[in-house]
Amino acid sequence: MQLFDTHCHLDFEVFNRDRHEVVERARAQGIEQFMLLGVTCEQWAQLPRVALEIGSAYYSFGLHPYFIEKHQPEHLEALKQQLLEHGSDGRLRAIGEIGLDAECGHMERQQQLLREQLRLAREHQLPVILHHRKTLDKLLKMVRESGPQRGVVHAFSGSYEQGKAWVEQGYFLGIGGTITYPRAKKTRDAVARLPLDAMVLETDCPDMPVCGHQGERNEPARLRQVLSALASITSLSEKDVAERTYRNSLALFGLNR
Ligand SMILES: [Zn+2]
Predict the structure, then answer these.
(1) Cis peptide, bond prior to residue 97, ω within 30 of zero
(2) pLDDT-based confidence at residue 147 (cuts at 50, 70, 90)
(3) 249 C-alpha to center of ligand 1: Å?
(4) Domains in the chain, please, with CATH?
(5) DSSP SS3 for 99
(6) DSSP 110-164
(7) SS3 240
(8) For binding a divalent metal cation 1, which residues are annotated in this chain's numbering (predicted)?
(9) 71 a known binding residue?
(10) Is 131 marked as binding a ligand?
(11) Among candidate residues 110, 132, 107, the one with its CA nearest the CA of residue 204
């Protein structure tokens, strides 16, 4: 079985002490590939290095809305520069994470940054990794305005109708720890009805612990629990779900050519 953790912050400091062991534990569970995310201008520099250290890892560059107060106008210029510099590195596979977060304020500035980064992704023909919090519909509107583009809605949690609208837009849905909680009925019901061929798996570690591990640092090995929840929700075998979501991940990041 081969799995792809399409969203993990393995470069974060909390993994500095035992990153190697964390990756080994993941591999022992069949998690072979990892996507690391860009969040701030000053953090980008460590991504190519950590991806190389891990081996089978990829990375993206982006300005995360959560850090809106840290981002400066010149960071967009820096992003353009990074894309040019690393464009031929086969590991740079996306722009992300970018998006809108209703809890972080400065919404106009967030939208402006997002618009620019969507444009850059189109220009460089890279998929986008989208962060949302209470902004799914606003985000979809902006993505539609920006035009056709590949991408993934990270940590999808929403209604069937919302999921369907994103799938029709050609986006993948990032399925993470949320569905391991029996109480997440709305998202589990939505996921049961949405097409598996639009889903990829993710942990968002060190955040979003799976059920039974609340309060602990999350890690990619736990992707197995997400897989098993998705298999149970869709009434398919784990093997089927693993194969199909893995294939989707390759398509998302353009690794299947
Ligand atoms: Zn994230």
Answers:
(1) yes
(2) confident
(3) 16
(4) 3-252 (3.20.20.140)
(5) strand
(6) HHHHHHHHHHHHHHTT--EEEEEES-HHHHHHHHHHH-S--EEETT--S-HHHHH
(7) helix
(8) 7, 9, 97, 204
(9) no
(10) yes
(11) 132
Q: How far apart are CA 203 and CA 209, in angstroms?
A: 8
For residue 37 the two structure tokens come to 């995310």
Query: Tens of pLDDT along 156-209?
Result: 999 999 999 999 999 999 999 999 999 999 999 999 999 999 999 999 999 999
Distances (CA, A) of 178 to 139, 197, 212, 237, 250: 20, 19, 12, 20, 23
Q: Measure 190 CA to ligand 1 centroid, in angstroms.
A: 22
Run of H or E residues at 3: strand 3-5
And the tokens for 246?
């893995």
Three-state SS at 5: strand
Stated as kind and residue range, the H or E segment containing 78 is helix 73-86
Give residue 8 CA to ligand 1 midpoint distance, Å. Answer: 7
What span, in angstroms and rounded, lies between the C-alpha atoms of 229 and 217? Answer: 20
| Beta strand pairing call for 199-201 and 128-133 | unpaired
How many whole angstroms separate alpha carbon 234 and alpha carbon 159? 16
Q: Which of 229, 116, 231, 98 is nearest to 152 (CA)?
A: 98
The residue type of 41 is C
Question: % helix / strand / coil in the chain, to the nearest 5?
Answer: 45, 15, 35
Condensed to tens digits (0 to 9), the pLDDT of residues 35-60 reads 999 999 999 999 999 999 999 999 99
